[in-house]
Protein 1
Amino acid sequence: MQQSTDDHFLGGVREFQQHTAPGLRPELARLAQEGQSPSQLFITCADSRLLPNVITGTGPGELFTVRNIGNLVALPDAPGRDDSVAAAVEYAVEILGVRTITVCGHSGCGAMQSLLRGAHRRAGRAGTPLTRWLRHGQDSLQRVRHSPVRLRGAAPSADPLERLCLTNVAQQVDNLTAHPSVRRGVEAGTLRLAGLYFDFATAQAYLLAGDGRTFSPVRPRLESAA
Ligand SMILES: [Zn+2]
């Protein structure tokens, strides 16, 4: 058992060196030599419960990942625009040549809760980096009022937070298309956009339909073939 937070952190690294690194070394050595060529850009929330590689069954070199508060994709012309996500999108599309961009949201998102409480409205002179960042989620708040995204075959969730978490994914997928490199890729048929939602309580992933209005559960392969 570790004695302190620092010991706990280093204990994990030591554990990795001892048990995991030997198995990963050949693949990482290959990637170190050849460079990365991931096929997917994965944009998701910074929430500690969300494990991108685990829920997508991917390993080193497969997922180019951007994480931020609320899995937000700021519009290129948004006030106080954000170049971080835009730069990652441009790099992934133009340099790495990814074929898919996935926006992945999740249940119980703290950023969505803050939006519901109006934190973004305190983004003026008394604003903080967090409240200013949350302004990039305002479009999701608008959208959830007139066309909330729901689970397929179900009424919109009675829970305002769940409605917003789901709807935010669809909005951020739409926001991607405002980025020139994405628009070009989608129009050329070389780039596909996807929305994913992960529910922690049931460890279930849901995929956004092409019309951006509903999510369906992703079934295990055997079950979906039946
Ligand atoms: Zn979140």
Note: The mean pLDDT is 94.
Protein 2
Amino acid sequence: MHRAHTAFSLALSPMAHKNFATWLLNSSSSQKLIKASAASAVRTYNSAAAEPFANGSTASYVEEMYNAWLRDPSSVHTSWDAYFRSNSYVSPPNLAPVQANTLPLTAFNFGGAVSAAPDSKTIDDHLAVQAIIRSYQSRGHLASDLDPLGILTREKTVCKDGLARRANEDVLRQHSGFLFGEQDMERQFKLPSTTFIGGDEASLPLKEILNRLENVYCNKIGVEFMFINSLEQCNWIRKRFETPGVLSFSPEEKRLILARLTRATGFEAFLAKKYSSEKRFGLEGCEIMIPALKEIIDVSTELGVESVIMGMPHRGRLNTLANVCRKPLNQIFTQFAGLEAADDGSGDVKYHLGTYIERLNRVTNKNIRLAVVANPSHLEAVDPVVQGKTRAEQFYRGDQEGKKVMSILIHGDAAFCGQGVVYETMHLSDLPDYTTHGTIHVVANNQIGFTTDPRFSRSSPYCTDVARVVNAPIFHVNADDPEAVMHVCKVAAEWRATFHKDCVIDLVGYRRNGHNEIDEPMFTQPLMYQKIRKHKNCLDLYADKLIAEGTVTAEEVKSVAAKYENICEEAFALAKTETHVKYKDWLDSPWSGFFEGKDPLKVAPTGVKEETLIHIGNRFSSPPPNAAEFVIHKGLMRVLAARKAMVDEKVADWALGEAMAFGSLLKEGIHVRLSGQDVERGTFSHRHHVLHHQLVDKATYNSLQHMYPDQAPYSVSNSSLSEYAVLGFEHGYSMTNPNALVLWEAQFGDFCNTAQAIIDQFISSGQSKWVRQSGLVMLLPHGMEGMGPEHSSCRVERFLQMSSDDPDYFPPESDEFAIRQLHDINWIVANCTTPANLFHILRRQIALPFRKPLILCTPKSLLRHPEAKSPFSDMSEGSEFQRIIPDRGPAGDNASNVKKVVFCTGRVYYDLTKTRAEKQLEKDIAIVRVEQVSPFPFDLIKEQANLYKNAELVWAQEEHKNQGCWTYVQPRFLTALNHSRDISQSDEQSTFSNTTNTNQESDTDSDSNSDKKSKPWLSRMFASDKTDTVTTGSGTVTGEFNAAKHFDLKNVRHDFNRPAGIAAAPGVRIAKTGRKISYAGRACGASTATGSKAQHIRELNALLNDAIST
Ligand SMILES: Cc1ncc(C[n+]2csc(CCOP(=O)(O)OP(=O)(O)O)c2C)c(N)n1
Ligand SMILES: [Mg+2]
């Protein structure tokens, strides 16, 4: 479309005719010439015709003819007709501007008089040369010398002039056989405007043209860029690679490369020497990545970048931390010493924890902040998280164009092409609310993934092909050529600074060792590894080169290496004096000032003044101030009017409750960002935060952005159709600043499982693994409403299974019960039934003195349910979030006579109350809503059970028995009802992980049994002393094991205050008779729902009859 449009407008241009007339038609033999050139073109060439060769107007003319022919074949000369019919013509992506070095064609001697028109051979030959230039530009990379091992390198072939060249048929296609005579090699050819190989020369001998093209495109760099649709960008790249002399480096620059390479190589060698039996996922074979990253950072800093956020996998991570981030070496070496942690964290340091460093860049003399984001083993999962964090940092700095903050993503070759999240992340790169204004992707391409060869791990020619979809240029480079690598990095950094678009550097190296250092690669890649064994490392190769050319001496090389080894030795000695690992040293996004001076157990009030609610309500229900000009859809006028009526009545529905929460937070200076598929309107058409002018394209109004003049920014963004990348992105965004409410909404809760890796590896466990908090809210529409098996359930059972509160442990009751629970758990899972509770729970995310992710099941039918409304009084000052909502009707008033209490959560409450009313059982059956399911409100459940002393207790849920909340609530009910199991547990994780603790003791026990250390429960299983008591911060542990000896005391919490005296042998339950909770609902099921509405209703009726009966 775009190309057709360009061509069409050119065809209409009177200038095109004028240019045409001046150089060709004025000639007396013009018609003959057209015929001759067109005919010969048909015979010999195709894309040559797409390039201007004689002056800038030729291509315009050809293009013009082509378009005229497309419209009407008879409108052009028969020779053109024949030419175009042969399908030989390929329209250029765009037309090139006339370049400064173009010469009139008459400047060339065509064998006749100077003023004579060019003969057809001259034109043919020029077209051929042009085609060859273009071939090199488009496909030269296919023959470039990228593989340091030479396994994939193509042989050179000897050309007519006796010179060996690499470009072959893959590159030159039909032009490879073009037989220039040897005498042609010396012939002068005019260079088209689309090449820069000439420098200041407007023409060159053919031989020189070929040599220069070979050198640029078929040497150690393979540039893939001709698929880019922008001519400006293509020319920009051509210029940076083709201009003569671009690859020359000063002696100082070469020494710097050598020094950096020495450090990168020395670091791995040092670790190999000191920790020979440890895995470190070394970078050997691709050590150049370290100088490469440094070059990118240097150039970017020079161009204005102040903060770089990096995401990377295992390979070379330690080297990057040491030599790019300059994290103190002793801190890194400490990780190998197997020391105990002084604070929380999973011991997952070496390859997974992040870091954050602020330092002076010595090359540019500018301050720079470098962060490496903590990442799980799940390859590439960190990509969108990095992007979200980068975007957030840009946002908070007001860096709207990404000039100050940038991201670098480092990939393995197998993961880059194999993991779908890479594609999803790439697709965020140019979206207005998700772009980070250009990411530099660096692939540490060691041509292997664990034990799998590329031919079995990808169908694409390169591991980088995914980047082509966003028109990112791809710079392949031989990792054994440091200068070529540095050049590519410089270009990449300049590209990002110029166009603010992604680009890829493919560092083609090899992996000297196995996947890790104790792995045997010869099992699976014997021939490759025979080659590798004989291959000199990059540092030695480069040092040899610099010594040979006289840039450095052999002594200098040795002394640089020795100096670095000394540095390592000193750090090694220092590391030996360390007694503990401090996880807090490894935070990638410290929230300085957030925790300080805060009472960790105090929640700020969440209710707000009624006048605030009225103000927000009025704004939210009003059309834009210029309503007369802004035409709103009639349906939306009705929505606004209904909202206004609610505000006048001082009640809120779901959308209004949410808007009240957002608006009031914005008023308090809290940035709110809501992202997900179709969130602006809301999947269920209830939200309507963005009003669209019905007559003016892209004119919109968002009232939440105009609540108060000094409010914080509100952003609501329809996302790409991705869960994995977008949820990861929002998680990254939420990590950056605790004073923001970041929400991701699934279209239906069911779809969140395509983002499972983000949920499992980051959201549920980020704090326990990496000491990193996030207050991200996941809004998950959930409800079995007969919408089919894929539009029903957010699989709340899965979230609950990952909740870290202990089902068997009733924490001590106190005024701080609720906040302590929140403090200690990994995340919050809730299903609210009222807009007021939604309002409070969202505001509570910010009111908490710490941050926890909130998994919120949200309603569908309740959005419009006439009873699912809240009076303003439930949101105003003094009101707060209700963890459970007791029965406030006749049953609640006369509790001792109640026969049955039905506990439930979520929308089924409304079905239950309706059925109870229909059966006139309001006095006999109480219905209690559990609004916050996890952490479990043990105290309130106990209170309710005590209130209804004589009643049977039932848990009713619309999800199947093996789904929903039942399996989570059942054991907790038993604990709340004091019919708990004994306190022994054989898995420590459920109690202790995922907690933030400021009051713990540390274990100095240096038991070397690592299995016991990592699994304290195992020690306890076989402990003999069962009566030890351990006193901790504020509580007492009485257990059946010798805690001081076997138990990892660092994990003992001040809140670890188990009821005493109920010790028993591990695994033995203390059975007590008494009250139980029974289940009312559907049987177990394999699917989340039945497909038909009718069946759903039948099943629901059965559930209601079961639950509401006495
Ligand atoms: C999502 C995921 N799947 C599988 C693995 C297991 N794994 C770890 S490293 C690796 C090979 C990675 O190859 P590549 O991306 O080329 O990186 P390299 O190790 O070669 O640097 C695999 C399969 C993983 N970590 N993550
Ligand atoms: Mg690899």
Note: The longest strand covers residues 952-960.
